[in-house]
Amino acid sequence: MTAISGAPVLVTVDVPPTQPGTLTLAKTANSSVVAPGGLITYTLQVGAQGGPLSGVVLLDTLPANTTFVSASGAYTRSGPSNNLISWPVGNLAAGQTVIRALTVRVLPTVSNGATISNMNYSASATGVAPIGRPPVNVTLQAAPPKGIWLPLIVR
User: Which fold has domain 22-130?
Assistant: First the structure.
């Protein structure tokens, strides 16, 4: 290629687009057993493997028979009864993981032995199919009644 004197030379290089990574999603509860009226804290972990991801969003719907207490990071609440929690995570580099927490209170009227099942949670990213995972279950178990201990007096 010969450049004309004084004219800039433009070179175009075709760079193949970077393949997006794979979304990962994990969720745990702080306990597998809680008393009616007790707190459950769910930990959600979303990550990128094998490449970067953009536009990552983490969603979680409050389980039935619970009320919202708190959530970590920047989030919004929407949906019926404000029961959908959405975290706009943004961009993740390959190998990067972000952790968010959601705390709910079990309604005190829920029966002992019932199961609180958090099954509606997912992660999505630009150009990648959304993913979800199996439900995270917590069993309700009332605390044993507190007894009164009296000294035994023998005559």
Answer: Immunoglobulin-like (2.60.40)
